[in-house]
Each structure stands twice: as C-alpha cells, then as structure tokens.
Amino acid sequence: MGLKPDKSKRALPSQTEQNKAKLLKVLRKNQGLVSTACDEVGVSVEFYYYHYNKDLEFKQQVDLINEKVIDFAESKLYEKIQEGSEKSIHFLLRYRGRKRGYTDSIDITSDGKNITEIRLIPIKPKRDEDGLLTEE
Predict the structure, then answer these.
(1) Domain spans in the chain, listed from the N-terminal domain onward
(2) What predicted TM-score, i.e. pTM, was given to this entire model?
C-alpha cells in the first residue's frame, strides 16, 4: 500500500506573493494611490516598483486598476458636462477637440510641413545720445 499525497496541503504563496496580492486589493480600494497602498500593506514603494517593472502579470493588474480609475474620473467629468460646467466642457474640448482647433498650443507649420529651422534675427535696441535705452 502506497501513501497518497495529501491534496489539502498545498504550497502556500510566498510572503512576496502575499504582499503583491494585498497591494492589488488595497490599490483597488484606494483608487491606485501607490504610496498609500504600500503604507497600508507595510511594504516600501521600492518593493512596489520593483515588482511592477519585473512581474508582467502584476503590472497588467495594476494597469487595469489605473484604467478603471481613469474611467471613473471620465464618468465624473461627463456628469459635470451634462450639468453645464463650463470648466469641464473647456477641459474636454482642449484635450479631445484638438483636431477641431480647441487647443491652447500653437501649431507651427509651414504649408503643412514641419518647420525644421528657426532663425533668430537680433534687434539692436535704440539708444539716446546718453546711451540710455529708448522706447520705440
């Protein structure tokens, strides 16, 4: 008669794996705030970033949490837009309506081509007979 392995005794996750699982749980709870989650779990921020950069599965789960946070924020933005908030409308148009001209930046192009050279032309200040700068 041979001994059968006891299936109830499975390998427990390592402390590192337990901490990463706790981090993910806390990140979900606190909207992805890394330092807050690390403090609550009792690990360093360096621990978080090490595993974020080295463990693809952990990174994907964190990125998914962050995407959900952005989705939540966008839903709140749309609520404000529906309420008529001019600031929210302006914000959306500035970042999502650029192709239609809603932007704070200036497109520096020439005939549809990017400018590759900029020449500065020095302007000599006008001075009076005493050598002092004059306004003109």
Answers:
(1) 15-104
(2) 0.63
